[in-house]
Design goal:
Shape: globular
Number of domains: 1
Largest sheet: 5 strands, antiparallel
Structural class: alpha+beta
Radius of gyration: 12 Å
Order of helices and strands: HEEEEEH
Length: about 80
């Protein structure tokens, strides 16, 4: 299980459901608890939660967890 799967599972366990969409290598948050996210962060298309690895052996990287949790609190 990678970092992103653990993150989604831990949020789900505390009652927060997030839906993600991707445009390689970017991963965006599309919805939080069914509410569409309209903010943009580090991209012109949506709120970037992180980047998929572009090389073998690398791991998923979150953009800024502080900003991600700020957004989650806003939509919760």
């Amino acid at each position: 299980m990678n970092k992103l799967e653990k993150f989604i599972e831990r949020l789900y366990n505390i009652g927060i459901q997030i839906k993600l969409i991707g445009n390689y290598p970017w991963i965006y948050i599309e919805k939080i608890n069914g509410k569409v996210v309209k903010e943009k962060f580090m991209a012109e298309h949506g709120f970037t939660i992180g980047f998929q690895p572009t090389q073998l052996g690398k791991e998923f990287e979150f953009t800024d967890l502080k900003e991600i949790f700020k957004l989650i609190r806003k939509y919760k």
